[in-house]
């Protein structure tokens, strides 16, 4: 008998993948968590019925959360990742030699536990001595740490359940206050095909708080529509003014010095979401 996993991405559209085996399927204190292995994308973390990461395409998302901001800041030493219990963003953050400490705040400890067990390629750097892992509410952590971080990255699920407060204007204001005077933040902001209103709202909220706001995009096949956006807010440094020659040529599969500025060149229909 064939078993298939289907994510219903809208009321009328979804993606499906053939399952080889199921490792975990349980309800944690915060969400439904599944760890499965698929024929096409390998091992896959699913939260509340949504694909979070897969072995095959995870590098795109994790690299694009981490490197554009870290390449824009001239000396990022203290970095915070909110969410991201799979450890992929932390892995990419640690590729930057200037980083002295990376703090991960994940609300659901089970995500960390099972990612270490079943996604070691992604979670393998969570035990690095430069990393501090905190199982707690990222929203509260932000508001309790003023002027503490050079770069803050929000690696959240879509705006449902425990991640909903991470898309509110008050959260972005808290991030601004938790950043140092030259600080930068970045958040995943979903896709323009199904969540155009969300991109518009986040962009408007961030623009009201940060003097520099930029949106960039990447292709991630297992995420809704395949086109994914990220929103960056910066107190001082503009990612579009970074010289390609100053960007470290790291060991990556998607991001590169040449791609840095190119990622900010948006299709016109997406660009229009960031205006007005």
How would you describe this structure to a colleague?
There is one protein chain. This protein folds into two domains: 4-54, Spermidine synthase, tetramerisation domain (Spermidine Synthase, Chain: A, domain 2, Roll), CATH 2.30.140.10; 58-274, 3-Layer(aba) Sandwich (Rossmann fold), CATH 3.40.50. It contains nine helices and twelve strands. The strands form two sheets. The chain has a seven-stranded mixed beta sheet with strand order 8-7-6-9-10-12-11, sandwiched between helices. The chain has a five-stranded antiparallel beta sheet with strand order 1-2-3-4-5. The protein has helices at residues 58-72, 88-93, 109-118, 120-123, 138-144, 169-178, 196-209, 257-262, 268-271; strands at residues 4-8, 14-27, 32-38, 42-47, 50-54, 78-83, 101-106, 131-135, 149-155, 179-188, 212-219, 227-234. Helix 5 (138-144) crosses helix 6 and helix 6 (169-178) packs across helix 7 (196-209). The N and C termini lie far apart (52 Å). By secondary structure, the protein is α/β, with parallel strands linked by helices.
